[in-house]
Write a structure and sequence with these properties.
Elements (H helix, E strand, L loop, with lengths): L1 H31 L3 H26 L1 H4 L22 E4 L7 E11 L2 E11 L14 E13 L5 E12 L5 H6 L6 E14 L4 E13 L6 E6 L1 E3 L2 E9 L5 E13 L9 E8 L6 E7 L16 E8 L2 E8 L2
Antiparallel strand pairs: 1-2, 2-3, 3-4, 4-5, 5-6, 6-7, 7-8, 7-10, 8-11, 9-10, 10-11, 11-12, 12-13, 13-14, 14-15
């Protein structure tokens, strides 16, 4: 009887020790959290948005890909069709009559970012008559060592892999901005196993699934991004995959992310996401458009917010970090 009681007591001690040890590990993880997963996610998403911005510009400039009737010489008059001054790259249009062009970045530093590598654009079923202005048209986007380096601190991210842009509504920036025959446009950006390499050679895998809606309130081009992906029981995911440390993660949009032409895709003026990383008992809550102290701000049409904030809570404690956009 005594032996049984002794074994029972010993088991209770072991269980108590395990609970205390687990609790200490969770507290330590909370204390050591630095928001890296949220920083990486924001970096990749914003640079992907900037690339999509260039893609929309060049599809709108090129009559072959766009599908509008125009003078053949217009295809060689870079950046004039949409009246957008785009710098830092050239466009190889040799294959435009077959539905493909390539954007080649030349290493020019703009908005604190230096871009190199290429992005190849190919309209699916081009020979069957598909053009980007048509609803349902799919554009294959191949990132070829597309690297963005932040000039201020040398941190970089490189994308390799394939995404697909689908024209959901029909029309393009040409119809929205120039001839103004449409009040809004919607496209989706999807892709699996996009390979991401960060400075220091650490790699991650991203599966990006987003819907973009473009409008022009106050004559300012504005983009609203929503998550359309799903993984396990979660929906409204803008992204999921594995972090630079090999942990599975999800990024769920709780409030649509909005950026405009004034501040650019690097500086959203609205939005919230929740990032969950396997093995952590707390989510990283990201709020875009804050001041330097982390307070939410509503900006005027000609102003831009300081940056974004990430918070994480464990039990009754909350930590946060604030990051500047530039």
């Amino acid at each position: 009887m005594k032996k049984t009681n002794l074994l029972y007591s010993f088991s209770i001690v072991l269980i108590a020790f395990a609970l205390v040890f687990t609790s200490c590990k969770k507290k330590q993880a909370f204390k050591n959290e630095d928001g890296q997963a949220s920083t990486d996610n924001r970096t990749v998403q914003s640079e992907n948005d900037a690339a999509v911005n260039d893609i929309n510009t060049e599809i709108g400039n090129n009559t072959f890909l766009h599908g509008r009737l125009g003078a053949p010489s217009e295809t060689n008059n870079l950046h004039s069709a949409l009246r957008i001054t785009a710098t830092g790259y050239t466009v190889d249009t040799i294959g435009a009559h077959l539905g493909t062009i390539k954007i080649n970045y030349d290493g020019t530093t703009i908005s604190n970012r230096t871009r190199t590598g290429s992005i190849r654009l190919t309209i699916q079923s081009y020979t069957s008559g598909k053009r980007w202005k048509q609803a349902g048209c799919v554009l294959q986007v191949d990132y070829l060592s597309y690297k963005v380096t932040r000039a201020s601190d040398g941190k970089s991210v490189e994308l390799n892999g394939t995404q697909y842009l689908t024209n959901l509504t029909g029309g393009t920036w040409w119809e929205l901005l120039i001839v103004k025959t449409q009040p809004s446009l919607a496209t989706s950006v999807t892709g699996t196993n996009l390979n991401v390499t960060f400075d220091g050679s650490k790699t991650a895998v991203y599966n990006i699934n987003r819907r973009f809606t473009y409008t022009i309130p106050g004559n300012i081009l504005t983009c609203t991004g929503e998550g359309i992906g799903s993984n396990s029981s979660l929906s409204s995911l803008e992204n999921y995959g594995t972090t630079r440390d090999g942990d599975a993660f999800t990024s769920q949009v709780s409030t649509p992310i909005v950026w405009n032409w004034t501040c650019g895709p690097w500086a959203p003026v609205q939005g919230e996401v929740s990032i969950k990383v396997d093995g952590k008992d707390f989510a990283l809550k990201v709020l875009f458009s804050v001041d330097a102290s982390g307070n939410a701000v509503v900006v005027a049409s000609n102003a831009c917010p300081y940056g974004w904030k990430v918070e994480w809570t464990y039990k009754k404690k909350t930590n946060k970090k604030v990051f500047g956009y530039f």
